[in-house]
Design brief:
binds NADPH dihydro-nicotinamide-adenine-dinucleotide phosphate; alpha/beta; 11 strands; 15% strand; seven-stranded parallel beta sheet; Rossmann fold; binds magnesium ion
């Protein structure tokens, strides 16, 4: 009997890759539920192709249209807790993915998590929901999938340090002056990955890597000072795990999200026929590593500071970043202002308790307000 999968954000980059992965694994997995936000045409095409039991569209009011598509934000939780679903792939972008993750974990399901923002926003709550509900979080993010592959079968006490790799994004070799004036088109030109717009901008500021440090802290219970980041422009080594004896394991492969998605579905097993390009060290060529320069990536530095402070600081950092990135994409603020907005919000942030949903949501809302203010000033 195949395993039922819900794909939240099926119309996005992760969602489409997930369906691609499942199309090669039809004996193992079946698509039970899909959800989109605004892209109704693609959602309708996916509905026709996959014939899932449940189809949800967030945008468009709370009513059920004749074609079997559930409308409104509550469709996410409905899809995530559908009785025929065992694995929920959360490919939603931003804080909007939180409730569905919590509901799926409380219902004892596996969440294959791409939606890192919600682990940053409410990591304590999400890990607690998993413990209490018997659900599990398996990362889809390539760096975290790499670490998981390195630590699977080891004891947590054997793990000493994590090193996450970062491509450095499109502005790795640019001077600060030029970066601060970068256009939307330039920020969206990622050197090694094709992804949604928000995460692509996050990769240009390196906020993505700060979010990933916080994500790794919650996934692997490693203190954030024991999580390092190194620039690796080729994106071939995805992550390293260092053990207490000094041994280091790394996971290697040409950049593709299909492998981490497949591994999150089959974990801890591995299955054949992934369809991915075989690794070839000669074709990969020289692998290089550089130190991350904080003065080049000030927004990343703010994120690390938020991680260090803990409490609601990561939630506020994340929310402020969502606002700042949207304003940049709408050409309301220059690229160089994103880090300034984040800094201002964190300066003003009052320390708070992120272990309740009310606390996390309040911090998120407060940071969005402060970010709007900071962007206008
Ligand atoms: P995309 O922008 O390509 O897709 C986002 C998806 O979420 C779409 O299906 C979109 O629907 C839906 N969506 C947008 N807003 C909402 C909302 N308010 N409520 C519900 N659904 C919504 O993003 P990506 O696929 O690139 O990224 C998704 C997540 O995965 C992010 O958290 C990102 O950081 C993470 N991730 C992505 C990677 C990648 O390679 N793309 C790699 C690692 C992590 P619609 O299009 O119909 O409007
Ligand atoms: Mg990543």
């Amino acid at each position: 009997m195949s395993v039922g999968v819900a794909v939240l954000g099926s119309t996005g980059s992760i969602g489409r890759s997930t369906l691609q992965v499942i199309s090669r694994q039809r004996e193992r997995f079946r698509v039970v539920a899909i959800t989109g936000h605004s892209n109704k045409d693609l959602l309708a095409a996916q509905q026709k192709e996959w014939r899932p039991a449940f189809v949800g569209l967030v945008n468009g009011g709370a009513r059920d249209t004749g074609n079997g598509i559930r409308r409104g934000a509550q469709c996410l939780v409905e899809a995530a807790t559908h009785p025929d679903v065992r694995i929920v792939v959360n490919g939603i972008v931003g804080a909007a993915g939180l409730e569905a993750t919590l509901a799926a974990l409380r219902a004892g399901k596996r969440v294959a998590l791409a939606n890192k923002e919600t682990l940053v926003m409410a990591g304590d709550l999400v890990t607690q929901a998993a413990r209490e509900g018997g659900g599990e979080i398996v990362p889809v993010d390539s760096e975290h999938s790499a670490v998981l592959q390195c630590v699977t079968g080891r004891l947590p006490t054997e793990l000493a340090r994590l090193i996450l790799t970062a491509s450095g994004g499109p502005f790795r070799t640019w001077g600060p002056e030029r970066v601060s004036q970068a256009t939307v088109a330039e920020a969206l030109k990622h050197p090694t990955w094709t992804m949604g717009r928000k995460i692509t901008v996050d990769s240009a500021t390196l906020v993505n890597k700060a979010l990933e440090v916080i994500e790794a802290h919650y996934l692997f219970a490693v203190a954030d000072e024991d999580i390092d980041v190194v620039i690796h422009p080729q994106s071939v080594i995805h992550g390293f795990a260092e053990f207490v004896d000094g041994s280091v394991l790394a996971q290697v492969g040409f950049p593709t999200m299909e492998l981490p998605i497949l591994y999150a579905l089959t974990y801890p097993e591995r299955v054949p026929d992934s369809g991915v390009r075989r690794f070839d060290p000669v074709a990969a060529g020289a692998l290089t590593f550089e130190e991350l320069q904080l003065d080049r990536f000030p927004a990343y530095a703010v994120g690390r500071e938020a991680a260090r402070r803990g409490g609601t600081a990561p939630a506020m950092f994340n929310a402020a970043n969502e606002v700042a990135v949207q304003l940049f994409l709408d050409e309301k603020i220059p690229f160089g202002k994103i880090s300034g907005v984040l800094e201002r919000v964190l300066e003003r942030a009052r320390p708070g308790d992120a272990t309740t949903l009310a606390g996390a949501l309040a911090a998120d809302a407060e940071a969005r307000r402060l970010a709007q203010e900071a962007a206008c000033s």
